Amino acid sequence: MSNLVAPKSVGDYLERIRAISKATGPEGRVFTNFTGKPAKSLYTSLIADLLNEANLREGTQGVPRSTYCFRHTYATLRLQEGVDVYSLAEQMGASVHMIESHYGHVNTIKHADRVLQGMAGWELPHPDVDVTRAKASKAAETHDKSKRGQHRRAG
C-alpha cells in the first residue's frame, strides 16, 4: 500500500468517492466502473476535450496525450522543485531506479545550490541579501559611470 501525500481536500474527495464506490476496502481501488472493476477510461473523454480546447491534445511527436502523461509531468515538476528521488519514488509507488531512468533529464543546474552544498567556497543563498547586493552593485556601477562622465567633462 502506498501512502497518500496530498492536500487534505484531495483526501476528503477520495473519501467521498470511496463511500460511493463498489470497492470500499482499505486496499480497494478508488476509481472503478459500475461493476467494481478498475476504471480504465474514467475521465478519458473529459481530459481529451480539455487538451483539445487548450490545443495540447498531441505531444511533440504527434502522438495523442493520455491521462498517463500527467504522471510524467507531475514527477518532472516535483523533481524540479527539489523533492528527493526517494520520497518521490515512494509516493508514486515506483522504484528509485525507475524515477532516475525516466526522469533523470531534469536539469540539476536549477538546483546548483543543493548540488554544491557542503563544498568549499559554497555559501547558503540568502534571497534578501542577494537582492541587497544586486542593488548595491547597480548603485556603485551607476555612481562610477557618473564619476567617469564628470572627469571627461572636466578634462
Describe it.
The protein is mainly alpha-helical. It is 54% helix and 0% strand. The chain folds into three domains: 1-42, no CATH class; 61-120, no CATH class; 125-155. α4 (85-92) packs across α5. The radius of gyration is 26 Å and the shape is elongated. The mean pLDDT is 76. Residues 134-144 have a biased composition (Basic and acidic residues). This is Conserved domain protein. It comes from Acidobacterium capsulatum (strain ATCC 51196 / DSM 11244 / BCRC 80197 / JCM 7670 / NBRC 15755 / NCIMB 13165 / 161).
What are the salient characteristics of this protein?
155 residues; mainly alpha; 3 domains; 7 helices; elongated; Integrase_catalytic; DNA binding; Integrase-like_cat_sf
Give the SSE string.
HHHHHHH
Number of domains: 3
Structural class: mainly alpha
Number of helices: 7
What's the N-to-C terminus distance? 80 Å
Radius of gyration: 26 Å
Q: How many distinct beta strands?
A: 0
Mean pLDDT: 76
Strand content: under 5%
Low-confidence parts: none
Question: Major sheet: size, sense and barrel closure?
Answer: none
**What's the overall geometry?**
elongated
Helix amount, in percent?
40-55%
Keywords: DNA recombination
InterPro entries: DNA_brk_join_enz (IPR011010), Integrase-like_cat_sf (IPR013762), Integrase_catalytic (IPR002104)
GO molecular function: DNA binding
Organism: Acidobacterium capsulatum (strain ATCC 51196 / DSM 11244 / BCRC 80197 / JCM 7670 / NBRC 15755 / NCIMB 13165 / 161)
